[in-house]
Specification:
The complex is a heterodimer.
Chain A: E1 23-26, E2 32-37, E3 43-51, H1 62-68, H2 79-88, E4 92-97, E5 101-109, H3 113-126, H4 131-148, H5 152-165, H6 184-194, E6 200-206, H7 210-221, E7 245-249, E8 255-264, H8 272-283, H9 289-297, E9 301-310, E10 315-324, H10 328-344, H11 349-365, H12 370-381, H13 388-399, H14 402-412, E11 419-424
Parallel strand pairs in A: 2-6, 7-11
Antiparallel strand pairs in A: 1-2, 3-5, 3-6, 4-5, 8-10, 8-11, 9-10
Helix pairs in contact in A: 1-6, 3-7, 8-14, 9-10, 10-14
Chain B: E1 5-8, E2 14-19, E3 25-32, H1 46-53, H2 65-70, E4 74-79, E5 84-91, H3 95-107, H4 113-132, H5 139-147, H6 162-166, H7 170-180, E6 186-192, H8 196-206, E7 230-236, E8 242-248, H9 256-268, H10 274-282, E9 286-293, E10 301-308, H11 314-330, H12 335-352, H13 356-369, H14 378-383, H15 387-397, E11 403-410
Parallel strand pairs in B: 2-6, 7-11
Antiparallel strand pairs in B: 1-2, 3-5, 3-6, 4-5, 8-10, 8-11, 9-10
Helix pairs in contact in B: 9-15, 11-15
Amino acid sequence: MILNRKTPPEFRAIDNITLLRPAHQKLGNGCNIFCFNSGDQELVRIEWVFGNERFNPDKPLLNTGVNTMLTEGTGTLTASQIADKVDFYGAFLQVDYGYDQSQVTLYSLNKHLQHTLPVIRDIITNSVFPENELETYIRNQQQKLQVQLQKNDYVARRIFNKALYGNTLYGLGADADTYKTLHRDDMLAHFKQMYQPSNCTIIIAGKIEPDILELITDTFDKDWKNAVVPADTTQPELESSAERFYFTEKPEALQSAIRMGIPIINRTHPDFPALQVLNTVLGGYFGSRLMANIREDKGYTYGIGSGMTSLKQSGSMFIATEVGADVCKAAITEIEKELNLLKTDLIPAEELSLVRNFMLGSLLGSLENVFSHADKFKNLYFAGLDYDYYDRYVETVKTVTADRLQQMANEYLNFDRFYKVIVGKY
Amino acid sequence: MVKFNRFTLDNGLRAIVHEDDTTPMVVLNILYDVGARDEDPDQTGFAHLFEHLMFGGSVNIPDYDQPLQRVGGENNAFTSNDLTNYYITLPSANIETAFWLESDRMLSLAFSKKSLEVQRNVVIEEFKQRYLNQPYGDVWLKLRPMVYKKHPYQWATIGKEIKHIEDAKIEDVKAFFKKHYNPQNAIMVVGGDVKTADAKLLAEKWFGPIPPGEKYHRNLPQEPDQHEERRATVTAKVPLNDVYIAFLMGDRLDADYYVAELMSDILSRGNSSRLYRNLVKEKQLFSEVHAHMSGSLDKGIFVFEGKPLENVSIETAEAAIWEELERLKTEEIPADELTKVQNKTESTMIFSEMALLDKAMNLAQFELLGDAGLLNHETEKYLAVTPKQVKALANKLFRRDNSSTLIYLAEKS
């Protein structure tokens, strides 16, 4: 029999997707623990997630500075001792600062947890932000910032966030002088108020034997007490700027960075999953319209994409690319053309069915291991959603109509209302 | 431990199957034994440009991406100086689509002129985005020719210059395909929710009929040992000075490879490493300083990079790095310090077993080295390294007359 290479093999659409759900317990001190127990390797990832303190415009770097410096010294351990302990036991310790939450993450082999957990306990209960370490931190951050500010895409992102979110945690773009507002006393006070059990969620993923769980609950329940004043995780109102066009000229640029978009609904809104379908069609995958047109047909760029962010107070949809400086205007014209097409023409059935399958495959593929299941949970939990969100998501991806998507494009994607940032040549 | 089965098709295609029933996905990874080192010195950047063209349609399938996306799959590829690697991940129910797509482009490409024209532009934009329009982006374009005088590692995968990419002709593309893209020069790894017997049937069905092609016999000029100190200084519009010191080291199969990797960890992995602790924290000379290895198959590069603080002279900064190297050459490292980086390596290996695609790529790369099973002996090789070996290797590598120093100065405005 001759092999038919012209016709694609039969395929099956993805029917349903099963997400692991965590076991939950609440410690006496108010700290919530969620456990994802799965996997063959004798290891765990543990995350301690804290809601960010209310933004203070006069001391804008407190959330970042405190989180980043958690590894720089406690009442009992110096920065070197912390690093030595973590590294000696082959563990990985990360601190990550986010827009809504900040966290500490430990990756550890189970056999070493008895040695690594006490270090984390010390960090999140007893950090002291030594003066000399703070000086080093500030100086190095200021130097690194100088390099970042030479990157057009970095500059474009800062301008964009500032325009959308104003003077808030979301809009913050520090310059060298901003670091001068960081003082040890303020950091200590911020730390005490934010890093307390009632503002902490612990998420454990990996092979969790009962003795492991007991070790963790013991370490983070006993003697870890709340402060008198609870954390204040309310945030000031976002204020979008009236100006919608920003051009920063770089006369020697070979490429221009373009970032444009609008504040939009977040994950809690019923339209969000359908909007994700629309976003995928526009610029959310390699075969998207923006890629097909601006990279694969015109060759203006190495890459272009659109994305959606979902934050506690807001969401946004944005398009970002770096294009040849000489074709910057042409690229923007094409972007506008693609946005308008979504409003005037129905998405053809074949394209829509491709995007449906792609999105479901992508969701399935994103569940690579137990850590990914925990990540999905975080998306829900911190947005105040339940697992039925993913049921609705899958259902929407499977069934949303081209008519509905066209309506949504008209409702949400008004190019004239887009914030447009260009860094380079225009 | 990453278990696998292995078979070879009659046309010479080597195949490895890793069964993993914890995932609903499969990976099909195809490694072609060709990289930038196999390029003509007057046509550099070609292996990478060619990788882009592999997505421009094949002989029976006009569009590569769409049919894959339609069945819920994703793909990508990368080119290095040594090899070119393509991978697909997709729901296991649709595994056959991956075999259909990958086998057709191994059989033959469409060789579309439009695709060549567009991808030339895309790659030129990539050249600008990653190498020219970034502060310090061109460092490796300058450093490679300092370290390599004979070996084709002297150019980066993106190529020596944009002109080489502009000049690519469709005839060159066809010749390159014929020379390198055939079953004998490829390694296939199938991983995930699949049984070996099924993978074998699919491999025979789709890849079996492809003619074996010609085996490419690599015969590259090897880099001779270095016996002279090399230095260069460039000035550019960057905010901070930057110091690079590169040393020529052994190849990937050299027993010293594992010693070198641990030495690089001792110097630069994590906040307890020597360079960070001594030069950033204690002496306060650098805002950042790192060591790493190129990890190439032929003789590699062991390189230091540091940005001194603004009040620190280049001479002081360089001397401080050398002081750390002298320490490694004269004092044996404490057993605890070695145990620390060995523990870290061991746990890294265990964590990497959680990622299906990583496992598939690793198996392919070790098979290219001679045996996929080597992957499962990596940890023990790291654990066998002794402080004496570290000291001996430091003395062998970190010599002035084995160094290439590039000083990247910030232009004063």
